[in-house]
Amino acid sequence: MPVAGIDVGSLTAEVVVFDRGEVLYSVIMPTGANSRAAAEKAMQKALDESGLKKSDLEFVVATGYGRISIEFADKRITEITCHGRGAYFLDSAVRTVIDIGGQDSKVILLGDNGRVLDFAMNDKCAAGTGRFLEVMAQALEVELENLADLSDQARETVSISSMCTVFAESEVVSLIARGLPREDIARGLHQAIADRTAGLVRRVGLEEKVMITGGVAKNKAVVKALNEKLKTDLIVPGEPQIAGALGAALLAQDELARKQ
Fold first, then answer.
1. Can you say whether the dihedral through the CA atoms of 31, 33, 36, 37 is positive or negative?
2. Dihedral (Cα; 85, 237, 204, 92), 10-degree rounding
């Protein structure tokens, strides 16, 4: 019996359609200015691709900051619970989950059964998130998807003193004006994200194995900097952005089982 999980974040909306222990289809779309419209559009695309109608879904769980606006959801569950559940499904050996999304980052500590034991979250500003990287890429005049490759070319690491997106942008512009290499600045930005994320990890404690999820997990320079900072080898799922929606779908399956 098919169920679905939907995760509406600040920058993207993800849907996972799940049935009989496997993902039937997943979709990632920009959220835009209207989270409700984005949720409807993402869900419809997922249904079209999987050959289902909305009435075929037995249960839908919504998560993410936009979950309240999703009228078609049967239940709404916090992203902490959903991301933990999704990561544990992807690898049951995982005990620490680092999720870096569009405008927040979180670290989740899991127990032996995948239950959330503790978490720390940065949701006060966009420091060290996907939005931070977007703004820094613009300041460096490089495409976001090429920022990690630029960092790989660095010979030195330029220290970035501010993690506030506004102040860091001004700092990067100033560093460029001083003639410092863009690649060295890029490495410094990735190192700054690793330093900030490591601070969140210290608040909950690091337990092996460690998985990174969210859109920023696709940035190999961030992953490399975190590996070095945390002295570990982060697990990066095949599609790290859908972990929250996957967890929501799994929790939808649980709800359906309880009802039956």
1. negative
2. 50
The CATH topology of domain 1-91+238-260 is: Nucleotidyltransferase; domain 5 (3.30.420)
- All residues at 6 or more sequence positions from 95 whose CB lies less than 8 Å from its CB, including other chains: 109, 110, 111, 207, 208, 209, 210
User: What global pTM score does this model have?
Assistant: 0.92
Domain 93-236 has CATH 3.30.420.40: yes
Q: Kindly list the domain boundaries of the chain, sorted by start residue.
A: 1-91+238-260, 93-236
**Cβ within 8 Å of residue 129, ≥6 positions away:** 100, 101, 102, 103, 104, 105, 122, 216
For residue 78, give both structure tokens: 């916090």
Neighbours of 172 (CB within 10 A): 25
For the stretch 60-79, pLDDT in tens is 999 998 898 899 999 999 99
CB neighbourhood size of 65 (10 A): 18
Confidence of residue 87 (pLDDT cuts 50, 70, 90): very high
Q: How far apart are CA 105 and CA 124, in angstroms?
A: 10
- Residues 142 and 252: their CA atoms lie apart, in Å, by 41
3-class SS at 135?
helix
Q: What is the pLDDT of residues 26-42, one digit of tens each?
A: 999 999 889 899 999 99
